[in-house]
Amino acid sequence: MEPPVLERLKAIDDLPTLPSVALEVLSLAHRPDVTIQLVAECIHRDPPLAAKVLRMANSSFYRRGDRQVETLHRAILFLGLAEIINITTSLSVFSALTSRRAVEVSIREQFWDHSVATGLMARHVDKKLQMRSLGREFVAGLLHDVGKIILDQYFHEEFMAAYNLSREQDRPMYETEMATCGTNHMEVGYYIARKWNLPPYLQDVILWHHKPSRAAFPDMAAVVSVADHMARAAQFSCGADTMPFVLADQDAWAVLKERGVDVNGLDVERMTFEMEAIGHQVKEYIETVMNPEEGGRRDG
Amino acid sequence: MDDRLKNPGPVMTDETFVLLRDFIYEQSGIFFADNRKDQLASRLAFRLKANNLSDFEKYYYLLKYDQNAARELRALFDSVTTNETSFFRSPPQIQAFQDKVLPEIMAAKERRGEKTLRLWSAGCSTGEEPYTMAIVLSQVMNGRRDWDVKVVASDISEKALRSAKEAVYGEYSLRSVPPEIKRDFFVAAGSSYRIVDEVKDMVEFQFLNLSDTRRVQLMRGFDVIFCRNVLIYFDDQVKKRFVSQLYDCLNHGGYLFIGHSESLHNISRAFKLVHFPGALAYKKE
Ligand SMILES: C[S@@+](CC[C@H](N)C(=O)[O-])C[C@H]1O[C@@H](n2cnc3c(N)ncnc32)[C@H](O)[C@@H]1O
Ligand SMILES: [Fe+2]
Ligand SMILES: [Fe+2]
């Protein structure tokens, strides 16, 4: 009998890696003496990445007004350090995880659609609930299911079995993954997040987004969980995971309530319709990251 | 067109607008806001003509005091309602109804040894919605005859109800009907299509004014209610009263569907909001 997936994963030596500059930028964020200069210099050490960040900052997605920003320095000034770190992280993750051994393209597409939709929705929810997570919620939303892409890449058969089981039996993926892989995308994602040395809040969200009450950063995990649900309700759901749900019965809801967030004041219906409306942004965002050159020039 | 420009018909004064607007609201819950005065005037122009009246004030008195007032009221309802509808409208809702809601309710009933289903299309217009419900229901039943099922369909417009009972539709009405459903549930009749009897007989039409609280109170024991694109015509006060009545019309475990992009936020807290892929529904626990 084969050893469990998690054991086999640990033995794989060509797991995707994040560019070292991305990790450095992430760690800079925690330094009290961080300056714009410091971050700009750091990103410049990876010229292709620097160019992409700049184009991204100029894409219709992030751009404020119609001024084109010419330098990374100005981009950081305009968008803020937090947002630049978010952009750097997202770009790095995308480039680390896309092109390689894409087996079932359509599932990959669904996966990224779901991830971006969750990121966008997390940003939206965060704003609504006035959580002020400074864009970190976007990155957390983008990465929460990263374990799925690892499973799909290295344990394709087992993962597809989980996927099909979820569709047939209308059960959540994390349950059917357990049945076919002996682990789930949260554990796998957590493993890779630690390997990549992602900041603690990201590791935490990746591990606990289906049970925010257990998280060390419960607010962030809860925001991402709500966003995850809303993305699925708007049919950005990875194909499986289409069970109906009552948002107010979710763990995330209880967490937010307990932490004094005014969830009852939240217009969930409107939020749902808004999610449907930001659907088109998902494609736009993906286009921009996958092909920053075009995205950047769109209305420039 | 030239004619209308030269002869725009009777003018509705602001006072008469308020009289008529309030009357319509009292009778039906349908509310014409101030910015819809012209719309109301153009809709009622026909009724003036039909009754040989020269101005709207006279029409108001006819509605209020004439011996034919009751009959004219029905014609008024026909004129002030919007009957826009289609088969399989808002497909994700229909999908949720078919894949999740009906199976869930039927499974719960079977556990209790019950085999009846009562569905209601409240504000059914020309019948596309209740027939869609019946088609889906008969698909889910898949030939089983041991269930006692019925779709009640009601509207305030007699004209719409007459056309619904005919169960005959043109090509255009069937534009979003999947081909295999067209094949199985419609029969060609000249250039039109007739709903097959098996489905037609499942639906029972009736005149019902949804703002008539005493009548609505008699509607009981429903498992699923579709009341889509109807609440938009009511103001908040009527919405609140009516939706709380709808809650009482449902069985425990039953579902209410309202129009896609309609909301009960600030209208009712009695229901559980359930998210389906691309659709919302309200559940009575
Ligand atoms: C736009 S149609 C919607 C038809 C269908 N439910 C759908 O979603 O396609 C609105 C219907 O509600 C009916 N209606 C409006 N006010 C009503 C009332 N007070 N009582 C009963 N029906 C009413 C109108 O006659 C009209 O047929
Ligand atoms: Fe997940
Ligand atoms: Fe997810």
Layout: helices, strands, pairs:
The complex is a heterodimer of chains A (300) and B (285).
Chain A (H helix, E strand, L loop, with lengths): L4 H7 L8 H9 L7 H9 L2 H12 L13 H8 L1 H17 L7 H24 L7 H8 L2 H9 L1 H14 L3 H9 L3 H11 L4 H9 L9 H16 L17 H8 L9 H23 L1 H6 L3
Helix pairs in contact in A: 2-3, 2-6, 3-5, 4-6, 5-6, 6-8, 7-8, 7-14, 7-16, 8-13, 8-14, 9-10, 9-12, 10-11, 12-13, 13-14, 14-15
Chain B lengths: L1 H5 L7 H15 L8 H14 L5 H10 L3 H12 L10 H21 L4 E7 L5 H14 L6 E8 L2 H9 L1 E2 L9 H7 E4 L2 E4 L1 H4 L2 E5 L5 H5 L4 E6 L8 H14 E9 L13 E5 L2 E5 L2
The complex binds S-adenosylmethionine and fe (ii) ion (2 copies).
Give an account of the 3D structure.
The complex is a heterodimer of chains A (300) and B (285). Chain A has 300 residues and is an all-alpha fold. Helix content of chain A is 66%, strand content 0%. The longest helix of chain A is centred in the middle third of the chain and has 24 residues, at 105-128. Chain B is an alpha/beta fold. In chain B, helix 3 (37-50) packs across helix 5 and helix 6 (91-111) crosses helix 7. The termini of chain B are far apart. Chain A binds chain B through residues 229-230, 232-235, 237, 242, 244-249, 267-270, 272-273, 276, and chain B through 92, 96, 100, 261, 263-265, 272-278, 280, 283. The structure holds S-adenosylmethionine and fe (ii) ion (FE2) (2 copies).
